Amino acid sequence: MASDMFTFDEQMGELIGRYCIARLRQQPIELDFGGVTGPFEQELVDLLGATGNDPEVVMERFTRVIAPRVLSADSERFLAFIPGAPTKAALLFDMVVSASSLHGASWLESAGAVAAENEVLRLLGRFAGLPETCGGTFVGGGSMGNLSALAVARDTGRRRHGAHQVAIACSSESHSSIASALHLLDVEAVVVPSQDHRLTGAALAHVLASRQSAVPVVGVVATAGTTNIGVIDDLQGIGEVAKAHNLWFHVDGAYGLAGLLSDRLRPQFSGIYLADSFIVDPHKWLFAPFDSCALVYAEPALARAVHTQHASYLDAIHTNAVEWNPSDYAIHLSRRPKGLPIWFSLAVHGTTRYGEAVDAACDIATAAARLIEKAPHLRLLREPELSIVVFERIGWSDDDYEQWSHDLVRRQVAFVTPTTFEGKTCARLAFLNPRTTTTIVREILESMA
Ligand SMILES: Cc1ncc(COP(=O)(O)O)c(C=O)c1O
């Protein structure tokens, strides 16, 4: 009977519960997926058909075939790209969000969930020094946060500058999602040359003064923690130039802006208070599960003017001025309240411990830099500003880096991928998980001897 699907099955509940608890208890967290795939997809083809299967059979296939072929981004040995390292509190509460089928499109349907998410957004806004009236929403990731914010930058810029075709300034170090967003929005990207990998107010002012094109620059994107090396742009200088030229100032802090919670790092973000919008991804350095990006506007009404969706059946959610509809602030309507796992974890642990966890990643990055400096076969390419270390193995070719990377993950030592820095292939360690130890770093560095 179809209705059986909606009756709680105690055995299935226990099966899933046992798995989740075992995974949550796992310490250390296994990396999994050593890159050896083989023809495993064949083992999945018989499951989906007109009739169902015993949950034990399906779960066995998940644990044997699927899970080992997914790298654990929360492993202390995952040091590639930007890892994730959710707190157990955030993970557990994510299960509550799932079990309760919580949604968060509108105030009418989910005022409680939205109010809790807004508490987190306000907290982040306060750390940034934005007006108390700031606000926004949580979206699925930094790419969607940037796209949503830049849509507001474009439309506000069109109005302010009286032009349909507009341009937005960014730097060559901006995340790839910025170029992608500008392309989708049909906005010209004006790439301002960075100085020592940092976008500065002076360089922006120079580009604006020397620009010949009739297409007005209406906004600028700064990065608070570049993805490749963790550099924080000159937020104060860029913000001041933006204000002087009536530009929208967006700060992409998907990775680095978590540093606002650290007493030690906070001064490095001075100038963030000038932002018209910023993003920070809790699924990165704010220790929440995928997928979650906090998008905050200094003047939320400007975002509402762009993102509010209109339809007769939606009139019911727009009935009064005090309601707060997340759908008014980004490109989404139905949504999971992606801010609730971090809300719970912050409420349980407090911001001080978050700041300490952020500092722990910086400490391990500094310790790694010192170990690299001492190793005769390695060369540190830049002192880490946040928690990313780039370094070179003297004498290695691109192929050597590639083979080393494959070998490390195959042996489950670490997941580390090469990058390029100043035209050279090199190694990159992105620290985020406070449980990553110098012992792990030593193992990685010794594997390059
Ligand atoms: C600075 C920056 N912006 C944007 C993004 C994109 O975020 P997401 O992968 O959540 O879409 C990243 C991802 O690493 C990032 O580092």
Labels describing this entry:
Aspartate Aminotransferase, domain 1, Aspartate Aminotransferase, domain 2, 4-stranded antiparallel β-sheet, 449 residues, binds pyridoxal-5'-phosphate, alpha/beta, 3 domains, 12% strand, 7-stranded mixed β-sheet
What does this structure look like?
By secondary structure, the chain is α/β, with parallel strands linked by helices. It folds into three domains: 12-77; 96-349, Aspartate Aminotransferase, domain 2, CATH 3.40.640; 352-446, Aspartate Aminotransferase, domain 1, CATH 3.90.1150.10. The protein has 13 helices and eleven strands. The protein has helices at 10-25, 55-66, 88-99, 107-128, 142-161, 176-184, 201-210, 235-244, 300-307, 340-349, 351-374, 398-410, 438-446; strands spanning 135-139, 167-171, 188-192, 217-223, 248-252, 277-280, 293-297, 378-380, 388-393, 418-421, 424-430. The strands form two sheets. It has a seven-stranded mixed β-sheet, with helices on both faces. Strands 8-9-11-10 form a four-stranded antiparallel β-sheet. Strand 10 (418-421) and strand 11 form a beta hairpin. Helix 4 (107-128) packs across helix 10 (340-349) and helix 5 packs across helix 6. The longest helix is centred in the last third of the chain and has 24 residues, at 351-374. The mean pLDDT is 96. Residues 82, 141-143, 175, 177, 223, 227, 252, 254-255, 281, 293 line the site of pyridoxal-5'-phosphate.
